[in-house]
């Protein structure tokens, strides 16, 4: 990996995660209470021995930049030429911001050239998975490929969300379609499935740079890897498919593009189960993050109807559950849940204060929100839609500017206390 440079694309707007991405980049969205989404890919880099990584940012990147700078730059040895370096658009090649995934890399040719890598790994900062990139690089070298795509099998009805890869028995790629409505292509290794691109690519650097320069000169290009760079290489360069090897060590391979509110919510709640699909506790593949200084979590009061408790939940540092009940939920740092409140199946971001006598169910509450006493969320869809952002599945998103009112406390709720 010493001859390899990682380029992590972390500049997307994450429109399908709105309103969580209204004030932050998608890779900076909290995950699992303790982490940010980008921590998963950066941990894969460290665990794979990839220690030279450019992180390309653009959209509302303040919190992302701060998180990487304070939590990751000290992980690598700069005196050995290792780095996790943030690269915002510097307009070296023109007056435009990043116009696509390929253009983002093209605009940083100067920085790439200064490192003189033999290979380049293109990564995304908004996916949840465990992968050893060194294994993929070894496959790339052994197959003498010009470009290698990481792939995983998906159901045919899911193809509109992925780049579809047509793979020969030898593993060579003979076709590529970016997010087709349907396809007749099937995997030679799993006849009922389709091989999909994971958005993880390894290029021989010389091959990639020539392709980027040619693409930049094409006025009709979308300057995107999936739409332009990869299709234009078909039949001209040796392209290989690398079948995803999951370091998560579960029966089914785990890879999630948490690009929608519902998929993001489900991935978080899975972590609360007795045997979660995505294992955060695997010491052989640690997930790292920026460590904040908070006191330990605390649970107080043990009175009838007023017992501080959490069941099947993730509770992080600085949380105080004061005479409240929390179940099947993820609570980030510095959250306070006050007496006689019930929180169920919810994801609570940091610095949230939930007042007394509240009932909250199937909600995501953004950071720095104060929930007034007696608030009810997740029980009346019409009322929730009047005040909050609600997905078609009924998931309620509460942000700092939500028009919260001092709701009267539900008498039936109070009868139990």
Automatic annotation (TrEMBL):
Q: Which UniProt keywords apply?
A: ATP-binding, Carbohydrate metabolism, Glycogen biosynthesis, Glycogen metabolism, Nucleotide-binding, Nucleotidyltransferase, Transferase
One function term, GO molecular function aspect: glucose-1-phosphate adenylyltransferase activity
Enzyme type, top EC level: transferase
Q: What is its EC number?
A: 2.7.7.27
Q: Which residues form the Nucleotidyl transferase domain?
A: 6-272
InterPro entries linked: ADP-Glc_PPase, ADP_Glu_pyroP_CS, GlgC_bac, GlmU/GlgC-like_hexapep, NTP_transferase_dom, Nucleotide-diphossugar_trans, Trimer_LpxA-like_sf
Q: At what residues does the UniProt record annotate the site feature described as Could play a key role in the communication between the regulatory and the substrate sites?
A: 58, 97
A GO BP term here is: glycogen biosynthetic process
Residues the record lists as binding alpha-D-glucose 1-phosphate? 98, 163, 178-179, 197
Q: Which HAMAP family match?
A: GlgC
Record's subunit section: Homotetramer.
Q: What does this protein do?
A: Involved in the biosynthesis of ADP-glucose, a building block required for the elongation reactions to produce glycogen. Catalyzes the reaction between ATP and alpha-D-glucose 1-phosphate (G1P) to produce pyrophosphate and ADP-Glc.
Q: Which NCBIfam families does UniProt cross-reference here?
A: glgC, PRK00725.1, PRK00844.1
Return the protein name: Glucose-1-phosphate adenylyltransferase
Per the UniProt record, the lineage of the source organism begins with: Bacteria, Pseudomonadati, Acidobacteriota, Terriglobia, Terriglobales
């Amino acid at each position: 990996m010493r001859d390899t440079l990682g380029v992590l694309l972390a500049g997307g707007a994450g429109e399908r995660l709105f309103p969580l991405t209204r004030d932050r980049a998608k890779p900076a969205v909290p995950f699992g209470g303790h982490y940010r989404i980008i921590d998963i890919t950066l941990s894969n880099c460290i665990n794979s021995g990839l220690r030279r990584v450019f992180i390309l940012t653009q959209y509302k990147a303040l919190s992302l930049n701060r998180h990487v700078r304070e939590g990751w730059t000290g992980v690598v040895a700069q005196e050995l030429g290792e780095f996790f370096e943030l690269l915002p658009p510097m307009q070296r090649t023109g007056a435009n911001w990043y116009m696509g995934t390929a253009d983002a890399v093209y605009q940083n040719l100067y920085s790439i050239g200064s490192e003189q890598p033999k290979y380049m790994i293109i990564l995304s900062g908004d996916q949840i998975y465990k992968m050893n990139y060194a294994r993929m690089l070894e496959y790339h070298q052994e197959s003498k490929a010009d470009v290698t795509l990481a792939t995983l099998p998906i159901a045919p009805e899911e193809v509109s969300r992925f780049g579809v890869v047509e793979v020969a028995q030898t593993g060579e790629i003979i076709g590529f379609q970016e997010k087709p409505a349907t396809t007749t292509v099937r995997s030679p290794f799993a006849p009922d499935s389709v091989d999909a691109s994971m958005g993880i690519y390894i290029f021989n650097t010389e091959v990639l740079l020539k392709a980027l320069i040619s693409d930049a000169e094409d006025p009709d290009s979308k300057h995107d890897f999936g739409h332009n760079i990869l299709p234009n290489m078909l039949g001209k360069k040796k392209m290989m498919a690398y079948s995803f090897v999951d370091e998560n060590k579960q029966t089914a391979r785990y890879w999630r593009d948490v690009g929608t509110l519902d998929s993001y919510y489900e991935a978080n709640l899975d972590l609360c189960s007795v045997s979660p699909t995505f294992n955060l506790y695997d010491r052989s593949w640690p997930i790292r993050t920026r460590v904040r200084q908070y006191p330990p979590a605390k649970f107080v009061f043990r009175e009838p109807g007023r017992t501080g408790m959490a069941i099947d939940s993730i509770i992080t540092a600085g949380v105080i559950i004061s005479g409240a009940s929390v179940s099947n939920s993820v609570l980030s740092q510095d959250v306070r849940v006050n007496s006689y409140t019930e929180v169920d199946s919810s994801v609570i971001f940091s610095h949230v204060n939930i007042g007394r006598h509240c009932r909250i169910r199937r909600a995501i509450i953004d950071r720095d929100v104060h929930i007034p006493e007696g608030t009810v969320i997740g029980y009346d869809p019409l009322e929730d839609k009047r005040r909050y952002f609600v997905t078609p599945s009924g998931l309620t998103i509460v942000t700092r500017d939500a028009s919260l009112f001092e709701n009267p406390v539900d008498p039936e709720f109070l009868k139990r206390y």
